[in-house]
């Protein structure tokens, strides 16, 4: 494999990892602060994508679409938190799983009702379409670089938010002890709604940004949700840093696995069976990675005791 | 001189900067009740956890019945004959009282991987279970769901479950906690007789019970054992008075 | 008799009666629906061993359902094409052999997945079982030999000695008898020494350890049995549809099996049966009313979780303690 191709694939892996990070960060934050496992997080990703497609179709502006997606996801997130989710904080995990699974059914069918079953497509904005030249003469998609940049910026923003701001202090206090934070005079209900809306907005942003790369369709959130779970298992629940490292690991492993495994098997197999075996195994690499990490660190790379 | 049945040899355990156990050496001889007392936060729970197997010491050993059990899990130590009761009742709350003691008897007997026979009709297990209930005075509550029991009754059930294990030594974490005067008086009488079946390492806050029961008392302060001796020796030990009893007088 | 005992007989009785009445009225489609309910109930009874007795919230049971389905599909595929597996093992169209293979294959899968997932508890366990299930899903999609994403069809339903399985009622009865037998065995399992120990680990793992019982092993055995039963259901499901595809392995399937249990009532012996009948009936009625019937299903599920914890049986039988 040429160096250029390798770098291109590394960047693809990075872009994928950054998307996963946006999903996983919200999930892990919501779990860390409220102790809630939210299967419907993928629905918020989907809502972000559809909102973006809707606004883009209406206004023709990608940037307005991005804003619209953020706002739609955050608002629907806040609404769902107030109507359903807040009743689940004191329930066991099984109830949380079932109730949020029910939300997926409602959101998926609701979206199908409003937008139909046909996939939608989002246009790449002119500013970001086409490739750009990287140092070393490598051509790479501007739009994917944009995603990487946004993801890294959001990551940095989150670290800043958590470690430097008042809300961050409240979030960290909430992770440590719910009663303490109530004793500090923080309105815990408001904080929870805020955290949930923040997580939803991150998922919505991820969904909107993926629009120009993938088709926007019902059910698009679920594969990403499950990968985000893998990320969290690898990184450790509740840790933003873990989510970041885990997301990059998963993104790179998956992308590189798909390219390199068929080539690897090609060394000692005929081409067609190498492609078959390689592709089948490549679809499993991240889960094998997860199993491997579980074996040595059952609570993830950056998790406390499980 | 008989050998100690249970021993901790120079156990150390710290959590970050906090030294929860500093070089703790304790022993328990057949036929005795050895009480472990100490103010809150002295590291009693940490020590109990290391003896029962829930925590591993950073260094030092736990010797039980002539065997180094430091690497063993809680389950393995229970099977080796260490019967413990919990500070906060750890019972299967949805089970009936009888099911809880049958569970203990089952754990003691082994042969758990039987999938078909009705375990609640197993005569040998039932006999041992009901015998244990009888001893702690819970026989008439056998069919109650455990969650319906009063706090004191749950403490009694804890002890009954430990009895079904027919342990070589008991490890009791505040069995009197929350019992009324009458309940703790009854339990004191019962433990008094129990020591001849198996010695008891007793962690207890109820000083009347400790002074009435204990052959020896060890005092744990800030993770360290500052004194071990008979009730009278402990009562008159100036370090203990200063570090522990003095503090309690003030409170 | 206690009310729950009566329900344990009545609920499967209703299912049986439905199929017989449909037969009398010559409504083969209703018989097929009843068969589907019986099979899904069996999958639910399997999951309930892990979930209800062991408290193990597995979101990956579709993996075992699918492995059972593919066990059937692969054996029948090789038999109908007269092409031995790896050129050595003959395929088969005989149900008893297929069931046995499905049981063993799904038990082994559950053993491996369980051995890894059960090292963790709580949310980790949920996410990891979900992830391993998804792994098999993607594997099935990318492995072209047995149809990949499209799945594969079996032309003719498999056979059972002495029974014409092509008659819908006969196949229903086969499934129903298996369901009944497994329910009786599960009931005994719950009351056995193993069942007592397993339920203790659910309620209080520290208690189980303190009496010398190792939760990990108990859970792993329960998870394996649970996976095997769900796998058997998968083989029957594939036979009902004469079709296997990766959708049997999808996490929606895991969710649906879990929904059955909750609709019926968790840790109740006949909960999955009541839940499966309700689920199929809802699907049948609501699908007619609207394309978007999953919205209603979601709303009902949400209502049950938030307001009616005991499910249908909980509403009828009251708050008796199950499985004592």
Walk me through the structure.
Chain A is 74% helix and 3% strand. Chain A has 306 residues and is mostly helical. Chain A has a domain at 8-218. In chain A, strands 1-2 form a two-stranded antiparallel ribbon. In chain A, strand 1 (131-134) and strand 2 (138-141) form a beta hairpin. The relative contact order of chain A is 0.18. Chain B has 251 residues and is of the alpha/beta class. Chain B folds into two domains: 1-81 and 168-251, Rossmann fold (3-Layer(aba) Sandwich); 90-166, no CATH class. Chain B is built from nine helices and ten strands. Chain B is 39% helix and 24% strand. In chain B, the strands form two sheets. A six-stranded mixed beta sheet of chain B has the order 6-7-8-3-9-10, with helices on both faces. In chain B, strands 2-1-4-5 form a four-stranded antiparallel beta sheet, covered by helices on one side. With 324 residues, chain C is mainly α. Chain C has a single domain (3-317), classed as ABC transporter involved in vitamin B12 uptake, BtuC (Orthogonal Bundle). Chain C is built from 13 helices and two strands; from the N terminus they run H-H-H-H-H-E-H-H-H-H-E-H-H-H-H. Chain C has helices at residues 3-24, 28-53, 62-80, 95-117, 122-142, 168-191, 193-203, 205-210, 215-241, 251-264, 271-289, 293-307, 311-317, and strands spanning 152-153, 243-244. A two-stranded antiparallel sheet of chain C has the order 1-2. Mean pLDDT of chain C is 90; it is low at 320-324. Chains in contact: A-C, B-C. The interface between A and C is large, with 44 and 42 residues.
Strand-helix topology:
The complex is a heterotrimer of chains A (306), B (251) and C (324).
Chain A: H1 3-34, H2 41-59, H3 62-83, H4 93-115, E1 131-134, E2 138-141, H5 142-164, H6 166-176, H7 178-183, H8 188-210, H9 221-235, H10 240-266, H11 271-282, H12 285-296
Antiparallel strand pairs in A: 1-2
Chain B: E1 6-15, E2 18-28, E3 33-37, H1 44-52, E4 59-64, E5 67-68, H2 74-80, E6 82-85, H3 97-109, H4 123-136, H5 151-164, E7 169-173, H6 181-194, E8 200-203, H7 207-213, E9 216-221, E10 224-229, H8 231-236, H9 238-250
Parallel strand pairs in B: 3-8, 3-9, 6-7, 7-8
Antiparallel strand pairs in B: 1-2, 1-4, 4-5, 9-10
Helix pairs in contact in B: 3-4, 3-5, 4-5
Chain C: H1 3-24, H2 28-53, H3 62-80, H4 95-117, H5 122-142, E1 152-153, H6 168-191, H7 193-203, H8 205-210, H9 215-241, E2 243-244, H10 251-264, H11 271-289, H12 293-307, H13 311-317
